[in-house]
Amino acid sequence: MTEFSQRVEAVVRAIEPGDVVTYGEVAALAGKPGAARGVGAVLAGSGERGLPWWRVVAANGRLVPGHEREHARRLRREGVTLDTSTGRVKLTEPGDPGRRRRERQRAAGT
User: Fold this and answer.
1) What are phi and psi of 46, to 5 degrees?
2) For residue 63, how many other CB atoms are within 10 A of its CB?
3) What distance, in Å, lies between the first and last C-alpha atoms of the chain?
């Protein structure tokens, strides 16, 4: 496992239930801004390591292609709101606790 993979896994494990972050945000927090696709590859290859992969979405709120139903089920179970017309996570919703948490993390430099 590469150092980047280890950092990605640590970031994803730290995402709290009910919080949602983007692949790009995970990449930045793992020290490699711009490596969103690399985060996707790490998650896709994580297998049985128990990562909460469902807490990571595309920058536009899109769920994992081919796994949308399971992704949505897990997010809803944690209280995450999905747009009923698009099936995407509402990332810019003003009351989104995950968005506020991410903003605090960025401000703190973590």
Assistant:
1) -75, -15
2) 21
3) 23
**Structure tokens of 80?**
């995450």
Q: How do residues 62-99 score in pLDDT, each as one tens digit?
A: 999 999 999 999 999 998 889 888 889 877 654 454 55
Average pLDDT, the chain: 85
Other CB atoms within 10 A of residue 41 CB: 15
Q: Output the pLDDT for position 94.
A: 45
Collapsing DSSP to helix, strand or coil, 65 comes out as: coil
| Helix or strand (DSSP H, E) at 107 | helix 97-108
CA distance 69 to 39: 21
Contacts of 59 (CB under 8 A, 6+ apart): 22, 23, 24, 36, 91
Q: Which domains does the chain have, with CATH numbers?
A: 3-108 (1.10.10.10)
Question: Could you give phi then psi for residue 27, rounded to 5 degrees?
Answer: -60, -45
